[in-house]
Structure formats: structure tokens, C-alpha cells
Amino acid sequence: MPHQRFDQARPFATLAVVLLLWALLPLGLKSFTRASFFELQAPFATAQSYVQDLQEFWALRTRPKNEIIEAGRDLARLNAAYELRLQESEQLRAELLRLENILKLPPMPAYRSEPARVARRDFSGWWQRLVIRKGRNHGITVGAPVVYVGGIVGRVTEVYAYTAVVDLITSPTFRVAASAEGDTRPISYQGGLNDSFRTPRGTVEFVPLDIFAAPGQPKRLVTSGLGGVFPPGLTIGEIVVLEPSTDGLFKSGEVRLDSRLGALAEVTVLVPLQPEEL
Predict the structure, then answer these.
(1) N or C, which end of the chain has less CB nearby within 10 Å?
(2) Is 134 exposed, middle or buried (0-12, 13-18, 19+ CB in 10 A)?
(3) Is the pTM of this model over 0.85?
(4) Cβ 137 vs Cβ 161: under 8 Å
(5) What average pLDDT score do residues 198-213 get?
(6) Which residues contact 267 (CB under 8 A, 6 or more apart)?
(7) Beta bridge partners of 268
(8) What is d(CA 271, CA 259) in angstroms, rounded to the nearest whole number?
(9) Beta-strand (E) ranges in 41-173?
């Protein structure tokens, strides 16, 4: 009987010894071990992502020619619209530069766009992350903002040789300075506890009392530009609920995020031209 009890307790004793040894390891060795383990896993996640891209390619090859012609026409219309937007953007950039020179304002942080494919999604109740197929090999830096057509995706938190980890705006660990559209006063945004079966949500704090929002009349939430990480004006989500906070000086509420965040296939990393600005 004692021998049987010892056999039953052996796995727990082994686990306790492993945890104790891990706790006693130096911090530098822990970081090296974690990075090495991630680098070992990265080729498998990247290879799986390339296989999925290949499957999608051959699936598209089976489409009828009529669908391809229609898609080409739609793409031509989008290209024409983007060309017009590009000309407007160049005019606005020139006007901004002129005003900066007149008012002697410091220039806005400059970025270069680095598109990257998503290799893996890592969603749980405590963090929401993406692994992208670019890292130090393409100049990705820790803290670089990540965006897509709908606004903010998140922020790069870990960079490896050929991959990088992006902390999504849905993650509870993500915070950013924001503001309501049409208002310059700063608001604090933070991700929330999200699962895979509901619309992603976040929270806002320190909202001025004269700002109102409701599910039928949401208020667009954008980046304020404070902190120098995210450019101003990028979409975060929509404020759908606002209630007075306990101190009565501000409001706090809920932000509805874009449901596409959980199914992104490609994102864009804004790599700063001067990394020390982050």
C-alpha cells in the first residue's frame, strides 16, 4: 500500500522538483531558454502558414474565369480610388509640412510600412496574440505599432530572427492613449477579457462627462498620438456604453472592436525610421 501511494504521488513530486529548479534558474538563463524554445517552434508555425497559403492559391486556381474577370474589374476600381486617395494624401502631407515650418513644430514620427503574413494565432482568456512571419530579418523592432485596413491591430512585444509576436488590442495587457472622434481630450483604452465566441471588446476610462455614447449611437474611438507610438487618428473601435465612474469626475465604458481582428491573414507593421522615438 505505501508503495502504491508513492507511485501515485511520483508525478506530482517530479513536477514540484521541475518547478523548483525553474524558479532557482537565473533570469538571463530563463530568457535564453524561452527564446530558444520559441525559435525552435517558429519554423513549424511558419511552414504551416506557407502550406495554407499554397492551399488557398490552388483553391483560387479552380475558380471560373468569369469570377476572375469580375474580380479584376473590382480591383481596377479599387486601384483608381486608391490613386485618388494617394494624391489627396500627398497634398495633405505637403500642407502639414508647410504648417510645421511656419509654426516651427517638431515633425511627426516617420514610419515605413512592412506588410507581414500571420503565421499563428494564440488566443486565450488572458492574452490575445498573433505571430507574424517577419522579425529582425526585416528590421521589426519591439514596440512597433501594427495596423490593418480597419485601424489598429496591436503592438509588437517580442522579436525573433524570422518571426515576431504582436499583442492585440483585445488583450488585457494592451493599453493606449485615445480620444473620441472630434475631441482632443485624452482617454485611456485597455483591452478586456475576450473569448472566441463573442464580439471582441475593450474598456475606456477617464472619459469626460460631456461625451455620450450608446449602442444605437456609438462614438468612434481613435488614437490620440500621445506617447509617440501610434500615429493619431487610427481607429480603435466604437464606444457603445458609458457610465459615470465611482468618483463622479469621469465616465468609463465599453468599446466594441472589429470582429475581423480574430481572422486577420495579413497586417502591416509601422517600423519607425528612428527607433529611439518609441
Answers:
(1) N
(2) buried
(3) no
(4) yes
(5) 90
(6) 115, 116, 118, 130, 132, 146, 147, 148, 153, 166
(7) 115, 147
(8) 25
(9) 111-123, 128-132, 145-148, 151-159, 164-168
Determine the pLDDT at residue 2. Answer: 54
Query: What does CATH list as the number for 175-262?
Result: 2.40.10.350
Distances (CA, A) of 185 to 217, 221, 224: 20, 12, 8
| Element (DSSP H or E) covering residue 12 | helix 2-24
- And the C-alpha cell for 188? 485611456
Q: What integer pLDDT is reported at residue 31 of this predicted model?
A: 59
Chain position carrying cell 532557482: 24
Q: Running DSSP on this structure, what letter comes out for residue 106?
A: P
pLDDT band at 178 (very low <50, low <70, confident <90, very high): very high
Residue 173: exposed, middle, or buried by beta-carbon count in 10 A (0-12, 13-18, 19+)? middle
* Residue 8 pLDDT grade (very low, low, confident, very high; cuts 50, 70, 90): low
Residues ≥6 apart with Cβ < 8 Å to 50: none
- Contact between 192 and 202 under an 8 Å Cβ cutoff? The reply is yes
Say how far apart CA 89 and CA 84 lie, in whole Å. 9
Amino acid identity of 102? I
Tally of CB atoms within 10 A around 136: 13
For 14-65, the pLDDT digits (tens) are 666 666 665 665 655 555 565 565 566 667 677 777 777 777 777 777 878 7
Most confident region among 47-61, 195-209, 228-242 by mean pLDDT:
228-242
Q: Where are the domains of the chain?
A: 18-61, 175-262
Contact of 202 with 187, CB cutoff 8 Å: no
Q: Is residue 84 pLDDT above 50, yes or no?
A: yes
